[in-house]
Design brief:
about 240 residues; alpha+beta; outer membrane lipoprotein receptor (LolB), chain A; 12-stranded mixed β-sheet; 12 strands
Length: about 240
């Protein structure tokens, strides 16, 4: 009898360990962005920014303050493969722009994604990451652009968390390096995680559209200010 109880205890411990291992990561990743490749103080100061990204399985929510009185929250849902951007403007309220799955998938049909896993490793905030060169090619023009991401598979994020930007890439990027021409100078924009804070209290409900946010199409004046014209309305 004791032997049976011992076997059952071992089985139950194994089951608990399996369930725990399968739980998706829930928490906040803090990031810092800066620019390298120039000594221009104006460009360097413009490129400095911090962001806070909440993650729960296939969900992400990034909150950024663009300037005083103007913030942007981006919510990505890998389960439905849709995106929502919420503009929080002092004196005007909150307005959202939703991009449904059909629109995202339709755009991706004209693009090819290649992921070159280099095998080069880098440890970022305690997580081992692999350097991946991402190349995105426009199939209509054959034009391509490449950038670097350092991806970790140790966070146990959802398999569709990258559905919008890098579909099919497993893991989560804790560092990105993007080359860009700014006023005739090629610089590298680097975004890297500075802290990872687990938070088991996060739930899927925390990634829903705020109840006080309005569809941006209800405010033509704001759409005009943002350069969203007739083409946006027709889509």
């Amino acid at each position: 009898m004791k032997k049976v109880c011992l076997i059952m205890a071992v089985v139950m411990l194994g089951f608990v360990a399996l369930v725990s291992a399968q739980k998706p990561f829930a928490g906040t990743i803090k990031t810092h962005t800066h620019i390298e490749g120039t000594d221009d103080p104006n460009i360097l100061s413009e490129g400095e920014s911090d962001a806070s990204i909440q993650i729960f399985g296939n969900y992400t929510k990034m909150v950024r303050t663009i300037q005083e009185g103007f913030g942007i929250t981006s919510i990505s849902n890998g389960d439905t493969k849709s995106n929502i951007v919420i503009l929080d403007i002092m004196g005007m309220g909150k307005y959202y722009i939703e991009t449904p799955a059909e629109k995202i998938l339709e755009a991706q049909k004209t693009v090819k994604y290649d992921y070159n896993k280099t095998g080069e490793k880098k440890t970022i905030v305690g997580y081992e990451c692999e350097k991946v060169v991402v190349t995105i090619t426009d199939l209509e023009t054959d034009e391509s652009k490449s950038f670097v991401e350092y991806v970790t598979t140790a966070l146990n994020v959802g398999e569709n968390i990258n559905f919008a930007e890098t579909p099919g890439l497993a893991g989560y990027a804790l560092r990105s390096e993007v080359k860009q021409d700014i006023e005739g100078t090629e610089v590298t924009i680097i975004t890297e995680a500075t802290e990872i804070i687990p938070n088991k209290k996060l739930k899927a409900v925390d990634f829903l559209l705020p109840s006080d946010a309005q569809d941006i199409h209800t405010n033509p004046q704001l759409m005009k200010m943002l350069g969203m014209g007739d083409d946006e309305d027709e889509e």
